[in-house]
Amino acid sequence: MRSHKTNNAGLVLLAATTLVVAACSSGSGDYTPPPPPATNSAPVISGIADRSSNQDTVVGPIEFSVGDRETAASMLMVTASADGTSVVPADGIELAGDGAVRTVKLTPLEAATGSVTVTLTVTDAQGSASTRSFRVAVNARNVSMRDAALTTFAKAGSDEPTAINGITFIQDADDPAIFEPLMGSGE
């Protein structure tokens, strides 16, 4: 709305009025404010205790659980990696399960010893991810030569061959019971 006045000198002075309109609820309770922008929470992985195992021994399966507020457990993607390949190679990590409960199994390299950090990552459908790490120590195993020879050679010819440090031994004993006395008592 504009109004104008004329001063004593005959000049027209203009004045302006500003009208402010605010939206208000009618009071009937029909108005619902829009929801806040959606947020995506990161998925979770349960804790896994550090492990220790003897060389040439599979570690696991180790059970753990995954979950997420917005994504069904069956839709969560789990990946695993190790911080090196000298103890557990990439193909020595096996994941299983497709719901909230999953497992990881580790197969160290033959005769390998040392420790490795294994990291599990869970990713939801929106791309949010969480990680959980644990250590695995693979210890050297002491074996007597007698026990090694009996395990390797005192078998029937139809038994599976034995591999030691990349060398495969095929048994040719006709009767394993005959071989054991040849090795002595070990004392």
Question: Could you walk me through the main structural features you see in this protein, from its secondary elements to its overall organization?
Answer:
Helix 1 (145-153) runs antiparallel to helix 2 (176-183). The chain is built from two helices and twelve strands. The protein folds into two domains: 44-139, Immunoglobulins (Immunoglobulin-like, Sandwich), CATH 2.60.40; 145-183, no CATH class. The protein has helices spanning 145-153, 176-183; strands at residues 2-6, 12-16, 44-45, 51-54, 59-67, 77-82, 93-96, 101-106, 114-123, 129-139, 162-164, 167-169. The protein has a four-stranded antiparallel beta sheet, with no helix packed on it. By secondary structure, it is mostly beta strands. The protein is 9% helix and 36% strand. It is elongated. A hairpin with a 4-residue loop joins strand 7 (93-96) and strand 8 (101-106). The N and C termini lie far apart (115 Å).
Q: Keyphrases for this structure?
A:
2 helices, 187 residues, 9% helix, elongated, 4-stranded mixed β-sheet, Immunoglobulin-like, mainly beta, 4-stranded antiparallel β-sheet
Average pLDDT score: 79
- Name the beta content range: 35-45%
- Our measurement of the CA-to-CA distance between the termini, rounded to an integer number of angstroms, reads 115 Å
Radius of gyration: 37 Å
Give the CATH level 1 class of the largest domain.
Mainly Beta
Gross morphology is elongated
- Secondary structure tally, helices: 2
- One letter per element, helices H and strands E, the order comes to EEEEEEEEEEHEEH
Q: How do the strands of the widest beta sheet line up side by side?
A: 3-5-8-7
